[in-house]
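Readers of this paper often ask what the protein records in our data store actually look like. Such a record has a labelled line for the sequence and another for the backbone structure tokens. Nothing more is needed to write down the fold, since each code stands for a local backbone conformation. The remainder of this section carries one protein's record, kept here as part of the documentation.
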Amino acid sequence: MHPLFDKKNMTLLDRDLEEARRVLHLEAAALTSLSQSLETSFIKALDTLENTKGRIIISGMGKSGHIGKKMAATFASTGTPALFIHPAEASHGDLGMLTKSDTLLAMSVSGETAELSDIILFASRHHIPIIAMTFNPDSSLAHTANICLTLPKEEEACPLGMAPTTSSTMMLALGDAMAVCLLKRRGFSTEDFGSLHPGGKLGRKLLRVEQIMHQGDELPLLHHGSCMQDVILEMTQKSLGCVGIVEDDGTLVGVITDGDLRRHMSPQLLQEKAKDIMTLRPRTISGTMLVAEAVSFLSENRITNVFVTEKKDGKEFPLGVLHIHACLRAGFA
């Protein structure tokens, strides 16, 4: 029998699972308690943060500081400019990062963290709004702050009752709640989120056609009266396998692809006009379409390129061309 499955180890595994479930149960119960404890001070804090002309400056020591760094990152990535300042570093010059247009969010479980004293005094002296996040409503921090977010005292998941576990989980969750509320207040959109997350999987997921399409001088366009010799030259020079055919006003009325050339191949091809060969009313897409959706569109229609257009007064004006190769370069299979 494998050693992990003997009687002795099964007992150890059971004990570990029981302990893990105890921790998760305590922290889940604490979050429920936190949600039920929210009051008008939370709304006042949101009002202050929303109306801050500068940035949200978050500061905390120890585990509160680690949570504060994550909160600052979440605020910033969801449309609320934020910065974490380490309280000890603040006492050695980083107070210069705090301006009169900012709001200070100071975090401390006890509300008596000595390292926070300098940054709190600086904020008070310069009339910078202070929001406290603490478990002790009678603490120095709570009394100094303009607004106090008091979290309910719940049992720490640490069996020694010392390591911040339940308390840090509640701080983190309250920060998420504030960030999401501000996101909704500001009307922060998917497009806004995408602009702040251009890298990695999130960036690819939110990438739009207009960001990777061929446009400007790369756009293959000719008048509908052009001869087929010019069409072939344009298609060859732009190397996208297609040419858009436009009217006098720039309206896209047709498209000629390399497939169209093969289908119309004959000794008379070069004597033809673009309007005689083009495919009328070609499929088009919008520049605001997600690239992931555009890839599906190309696949479903069994095409390798498509014109990107803007519609005005019932007409379509070409803005670019999306080629499957551009999608592949952007990380879409």
